[in-house]
Amino acid sequence: MQWFNLFNANIRKEYIELKRYLPNTLAMLFTFYFVFLGMFFGIQVIGDPSVQDINTQYAIVNYVFWFLTIMVIQDIGWQVINEGMRDTLEQLSMSPMGIWKIMTTRLLATTLLNFIIVVFLLFLSMLTTGQWLNIDVGTLLPILLLTLISMFGIGFIIAGISIVLKQVQAFLQILQFILAGLTFVPLTVAPFLAFFPFVKGVDLVRSVMIDGVTLSQIQATDWAILSVNAVVYFVLGLFIFLYCERFAMKRGLLAHY
Amino acid sequence: MESIIEVRNIKKTYKKRKSKEIITAVNDISFTVNKGEILGLLGPNGAGKTTTIKLICGLLIPDSGFIKVNGIDTQEKRLHALRHISAVLEGNRNLYWRLTVRENLEYFAGNRGKSRKEVALEIDDLLEKFRLKEKEKELVNRLSRGMQQKLAIAVAMLADSEVILLDEPTLGLDVETGYEVREMLQDIVKNYNRTIIISSHDMDVIQNLCERTVIINHGEIVTNDKVDNLLRLFDVRAYTITLDGFLSEHQQQLLLQKFPQLEYIPDTIQSTLKVDLTKSEEIYDLFDVLKLEHTPVESIDKKTVNFEEVFMKIVKGEKQYAMV
Ligand SMILES: Nc1ncnc2c1ncn2[C@@H]1O[C@H](COP(=O)(O)OP(=O)(O)O)[C@@H](O)[C@H]1O
Ligand SMILES: [Mg+2]
């Protein structure tokens, strides 16, 4: 019940802020869409016509997934930075629920809200290009769920680093490109990347959405890799976050001093 | 009386980021706070008040020593201890500026695991009481600094914790708002059964609100006593003696030997002697010196000291006064 109330309060806060600062949200959507249009026309103009369709499909999946990745992985990092700058981080740290629980519910809340945005963007992209991908919800959902959990773990690591180091804005900017690299590179090029937090996930998403792979066709080893990644990264992330929080309390880093 | 907060031999050092210099913010301090008591934590800037408050709220981990709240060790069972504590920290950033007054109250209650329904009535009550009702739908960034502070205190009240910590609650407020916040705190003290620690460098705040004060300076406790006792202590021993005429060189020398802190203000009409006595009997020694030259005494006043002067003396290290 306490968890539920905590979740409720945080999703409400995220939603209110998203709505109240609608221009920000809209600007973000427009930026996304225009960059996508640029990419789409690039493929039309300079790409090889024989693989145009498949290239467009890759572009859609990769780009949409990249957007989701950035949103989820950087979310609590930014939350921590913003709360730190506004000095509300200390009030959060004083909750008897523990700051990691608050951050987890916020992460769930923003993921949920961003997910709606991502689905909207996905359909918008498909509509623009006329390339209709295979949206097999029953197959995509479990893949996404496991992938998101591993992303949460990375999110916690970044949030922990942000608490301790504070000035990580530049790092977060660079991180977006690293994430782009990881999303856009096919697994066949570098198989070991499967053990990176979300590369396996996006690879499977591609095979479902583009090649029409179904739930029963996905290998047990693939599920195993996804699950292991989810557990390992989440636990590791939480561990590092809690360690950083303790370190910050020892050094007096929670406040902006 | 039963104590609810126990601070034992707490030490806290900071390492400066750039210079790596080590600063001892709080050095081996111990005190307890009783249930229902209002304790003032008084000290000049940089004395270690904020650090002490944050150590009690579990926002800082001490280098050594321990703190117990309701018998719960804040390090061993941090989250458990936090259930009994809420705090308004220094500055004006205890709130979300992009949320409204009511949304802030609801959000922070949610962060303590309570539903909006559960706290709805209580929120109405608090808004009414703190005269924030008309502002409940106002965004916090549109509120005056005083209103924000009142809301922050309301948020702390809503937590339903036995202990409330307030770090410099009137800092940065204009005189009028400061007075209003003080009235509000007085109301809380009277009508709600909470244990409160108020830190301030403003003696007026402490004198008005607190029964007892712990005075700290350079991270150490200088005194820990009832506010009344401190005032009485100084009241009794601070004398101003008005003389009709001057003191001779010889008299001055003798007096300064005996009372190094004596202040002599010669004047053609009336000279004054200001002296703080460690023991009341010392006044006889003073009169002996005056008698040597039959210096006429116009009047003797027991100086009425205010808390500020007491505070300044204690902070300046005139420890002997406080250590009786
Ligand atoms: N996070 C911090 N890092 C480094 N030094 C600090 C930090 N917080 C406080 N200090 C130093 O510790 C001392 C005590 O500070 P503080 O507890 O804020 O005092 P007060 O609240 O009484 O003004 C000061 O010298 C201050 O400069
Ligand atoms: Mg302070």
TrEMBL record, chain A:
Where is it localised? Membrane
Asked if the keyword Calcium belongs to this entry, the reply reads no
Membrane topology (UniProt)? Multi-pass membrane protein
Q: Which GO terms describe its molecular function?
A: ABC-type transporter activity
A Pfam cross-reference name: ABC2_membrane_3
Which coarse location class describes where this protein primarily resides? membrane
The ABC-2 type transporter transmembrane domain covers 54-239
What is the protein name for this chain?
ABC-2 type transport system permease protein
From TrEMBL, chain B:
What keywords sit in the KW lines?
A: ATP-binding, Nucleotide-binding, Transport
Domain ABC transporter, chain residue ranges per copy: 5-243
What PROSITE patterns is this protein classified in? ABC_TRANSPORTER_2
* InterPro entries assigned to the protein according to its UniProt record, in alphabetical order: AAA+_ATPase, ABC_transporter-like_ATP-bd, ABC_transporter_ATP-binding, P-loop_NTPase
Pfam families membership:
ABC_tran (PF00005)
Q: Which GO terms describe its molecular function?
A: ATP binding; ATP hydrolysis activity
Family named by the database record: Belongs to the ABC transporter superfamily.
Descriptive protein name: ABC-2 type transport system ATP-binding protein
- Origin organism is Oceanobacillus limi
